Amino acid sequence: MEMTPSERYRQLAAWFRQPTGRALAAREKAWLDAVLPDLFGYYLLEVGGTERGDLAAASRVLHPFRMTPAPGTDPGPAVPSLCAEADALPVASRTVDVVLLEHVLEFAAEPHAVLREVERVLMPEGHLVLLAFNSRSPWQLARPGRRGRAPWGGRFYSGRRLRDWLALLGFDLVLQRSLMFRPPLPSQRLQERLAPLEGLAERWSLPGGAVHLLVARKRVFSMTPVRPRWRPRRATGAAVPAAGQHYEE
Length: 249
Description:
Methyltransf_11, Methyltransferase domain-containing protein, alpha/beta, 9 strands, Rossmann fold, globular, transferase, 23% strand, disordered C terminus, single chain, two-stranded antiparallel sheet, SAM-dependent_MTases_sf, S-adenosylmethionine-dependent methyltransferase activity
């Protein structure tokens, strides 16, 4: 029987409490702590169901709030939160300065609809910070036999596909990084021993990490003024004064 999105998110939240999930969470948190302080505004919306309430703690945005697509999840620290579907956000258009989309596309029935909602609620020049599993990482080798469980049951995406989707919606890419180069081993000790791989791979900006981190800015489309064409009226035998010229649409 197919699991509902809410069940998927609960399962993903449980996975993030396991050794591999904790190691990944630490890498994501470290990068968000580096990225978010440079994004400013009044409102930050965090959308995700992994029950990690500290992801946006480094943000300088004045009013953060969370939205989870899974009812009954832990809202985390004292941040206003509510339950809503990611493709139907109860937020007015052009009111949010930063959206943090945390592993939502992988479990969404219509990922394009989720991104359209993000574009709708973002202010012009607002920023999207996106975390998503990479379909072109060695972690793909661990998926056979685990597809019924999160995160393996979700749909992973390539960086090119994510960039194409964002470009079609009018976003300019600001940053793209690959995170988490350790294999998904269930041992905490092995995860700790392999931790130096992260610094080496990230120092050289290597591709192929298990997770994409993308930062994109909502483009503002400016209107280009069109010069009106002024033509004199046809001569009718009498001189036509300059004031007789008219504007043709």
